[in-house]
Specification:
Blueprint (H helix, E strand, L loop, with lengths): L3 E5 L24 H12 L3 E6 L4 H18 L3 E6 L21 H6 L9 E5 L2 E2 L2 H11 L7 E8 L10 E8 L5 E13 L2 E4 L2 E3 L4 E9 L2 H15 L11 H10 L4 E7 L4 E2 L5 H14 L18
Parallel strand pairs: 1-2, 1-4, 2-3, 6-12
Antiparallel strand pairs: 4-11, 5-13, 6-11, 7-8, 7-11, 8-9, 9-10
Helix pairs in contact: 1-4
């Protein structure tokens, strides 16, 4: 069974090398976090990579990332495709406010790829490191005996996802005794403390499961998303800043009992460059993974990756 990895990268800026966090080199040979996600996904069995970007950065994206990844994927018989998220890509009868500048969130991002998602797929952020175990578990789920309404979410332990340099936003999950997701609450400004974690001084269970936007979905979900996007636009309270977000919408569907989401727990430590000060920690983490034998020092089999691919 073919499986796709959908990488949401539309948030990457158009001026590469100008402090864009998704493109900060973190590996020994200049690899970026996305390199490790793609490597882990292919090793786990995913055989199609779909990049969701904005049309105006297509040439730069391919020069810096896409062309290099396409060469690697060709050697491994992995397909590469592109989808384009646009502020004006709305259902018939809807128009974006003239003053709005940002796209409509992760739900709209996945909808941008609906015509090329023909198989079970995973969704991830471009700038998050998820770990090898997460991709293995997600691929096993997607290729198992599940219906088009049975989905999965990789559940990270909150304490494994916090930044040393400030508060973060996480989707704190409620999970039943059978390991299924019952609710996701987007929670802002979660800070690491001596005793675990807190929000505005209020303690939060550091062993809670959280969503890091790593989902396993069926092609049917894109049809469900289309309906949800229309509902979102019809009830939009803030047309300038409102976003159609996957975890919030899935939480709504769970309350309506329209689908199930199996939580796939992982002990892997998430990391990413939320703050500029996080970069050194990410680099140190990558070097430890190399020292532990998780990755080869030369990830893709050649010696140097440059900003020009």
């Amino acid at each position: 069974m073919k499986t796709s990895l959908v990488i949401m990268a539309a948030g990457i800026g158009s001026r590469f090398g100008g402090g864009i966090k998704q493109l900060e080199p973190v590996g020994v040979n200049g690899e970026i976090i996305m390199d490790y996600s793609i490597h882990d996904a292919i090793e786990a069995g995913f055989d199609k990579i779909i990049f969701i970007i904005r049309r105006e950065i297509e040439a730069d994206f391919k020069e810096v990332i896409g062309d290099r990844i396409e060469k690697i994927c060709t050697e491994k018989n992995v397909e590469v495709a592109y989808a384009f998220q646009s502020l004006t890509d709305l259902p018939k009868g809807y128009e974006a406010p003239a003053e709005r500048t940002k796209p409509w969130g992760t739900g709209q991002a996945v909808l941008a790829a609906k015509e090329i998602i023909k198989e079970p797929f995973a969704v991830i952020n471009a700038d998050d490191y998820y770990g090898r175990e997460a991709f293995v578990k997600l691929h096993e789920f997607l290729t198992g005996k599940v219906t088009e309404f049975d989905y999965a979410m990789v559940g990270f332990i909150l304490k494994n996802t916090l930044s040393e340099n400030g508060g973060v936003t996480r989707g704190i999950c409620s999970v039943d005794k059978s390991g299924y997701l019952t609710d996701v609450v987007e929670t802002a400004n979660i800070e690491k403390t001596e005793n675990g974690a807190a929000v505005d001084g209020r303690p939060v269970d550091p062993d809670s499961y959280v969503s890091m936007n790593m989902w396993g979905l069926s092609p049917k979900f894109t049809e469900i998303l289309e309906e949800g996007f229309r509902e979102f636009l019809d009830t939009l309270e803030n047309p300038m800043k409102g976003e159609f977000l996957i975890p919030i919408y899935i939480g709504k569907l769970l309350q309506q009992k329209k689908l199930t989401v199996k939580v796939l727990p992982t002990e892997d430590k998430w990391f990413g460059v939320t703050y500029r000060e996080d970069k050194q920690l990410v680099m140190d983490s990558i070097r430890k993974l190399i020292a532990d034998g998780v990755y080869a020092e030369d990830l893709h089999g050649f010696t140097k990756i440059s900003k020009n691919g």
